[in-house]
Amino acid sequence: MEFRSPLGRARGPGSAKEGGIGQWKAERLAAIALVPLTLWFMASAVFMVGADLATFKEWAGAHGNPVLLILLTIALYHHAQMGLQVVIEDYVHHEGVVIISLVLVKLGAFFCAAYTIFSIVRLTF
Amino acid sequence: MASGNRPLSPHLQVYRPQITSMLSILHRMTGVGLVGGALIFTYWITSATYGPEAFDRAQSILGSWFGRLVLLGTIFAFYFHLANGIRHIAWDAGWGYEMPKLRASGVVVLVFSTSMTFLTFLAGYWAAGVI
User: What was the ipTM of the complex prediction?
Assistant: First the structure.
């Protein structure tokens, strides 16, 4: 069922454009994943206050910790780049600046996530 | 934009501050701030791959008075954004739109984030053997 008028569709008002539902779901999925992951991280990281490298490596490599750290990294940067996208789209009004900012945010998030995951994997060897 | 005269969102400065609007903008501000928290997380994890000196340097930077101040803000932002994010998910499910519930859940979020920040710092000092 199409509720928009032909003129409304041609003009394309509304911030969601095409695929708004997918973005909405992805935002909530990453957010829900972050609830247990960040709480686990906070509870663990507190005990790393003042720790030396050996203690840190022992924790980072123990049991399922590397997997949880990698999942945390993915959910965190996924959520962060989507959140920054919303803020940029709301407050930046120059279309060229919006596009450049979004490209930088998304590539930056990919870089940080890849660098962190690579480090987590290296720590376990 | 196709047409220039459609209504805009209300601006922050126009209305009297209320718990609903203040927590809403605080959710955005803590979210943007927590991007800094994500970068601290990445710095902390990656520093461990560059050897003991690099990791000890990261630990001492985060443990300095300035590092602790930044972590205090980051940890408060984390607990606030977490609790208020769960409040948002509840709204998405259709719960909590009545004004008394809206205000009460806002107060719960503030009390939770303040007390959890305090408890986390207490646990950190305890883990470091200071108390």
Answer: 0.89
